[in-house]
Design goal:
- The structure is a single chain.
- The protein is mainly α.
- It has a three-stranded antiparallel β-sheet with strand order 3-4-5, with no helix packed on it. A two-stranded parallel ribbon has the order 1-2.
């Protein structure tokens, strides 16, 4: 695989958050597609970055999850700020899948052995929509797909199906 560019879009961040939320709640893609009146294939293409996430679809998916669209957008803004702190460009325009580094990392994460073998969000674990969480021990709890893009150690562990202690990013892992 070619080296990923550190560029993404707000739409990609929102799409990643919706997919992470779907996985957190144990909802199948076909169920989301049914909620919003799309075919499972059409929704799969949106999650894969092969079809754009239309605003109306975004709103319908949020409402289907009983989440306000503004909550997802506010979370996306917090992640955009974190990404910019780590030398990522976050654009308010469309990018091709091959140009969007974050979406490509997310796709790689979701296909990784570590992700495929992970368990749904345990009770008491913070929702992806609460992140990023800055913890008292100076770690940052992130959505797993975004952590995969930022943390080379986590990325290697997911590719090798290894479990790392804790679910938070050590800030020094970013440098």
């Amino acid at each position: 695989m070619t080296e990923m560019q550190n560029v993404t879009t707000y739409t990609s961040i929102c799409m990643i958050l919706l997919r992470e939320l779907r996985m957190e709640r144990g909802v199948h893609q076909a169920q989301v597609a049914d909620w919003i009146g799309k075919t499972p294939s059409a929704w799969t293409k949106v999650e894969a970055g092969k079809s754009p996430l239309q605003f109306e679809t975004f709103v319908r998916v949020c409402f289907s999850f009983q989440v306000q669209p503004s909550t997802v957008m506010a979370t996306a803004e917090r992640y955009a700020a974190l990404l910019r702190q780590h030398k990522w460009a976050v654009l308010a325009t469309e990018l091709d899948l091959n140009e969007d580094g974050l979406l490509r990392y997310a796709q790689e994460y979701w296909a990784s052995p570590g992700c495929r073998n992970s368990l749904p969000n345990p009770w008491g674990a913070p929702s992806v929509l609460n992140g990023p969480l800055y913890n008292p021990d100076n770690t940052i709890t992130l959505a797993s797909a975004i952590r995969y893009a930022l943390d080379a150690n986590f990325r290697a562990a997911q590719l090798n199906n290894q479990v790392l202690p804790g679910n938070a990013l050590q800030p020094e892992a970013l440098y």
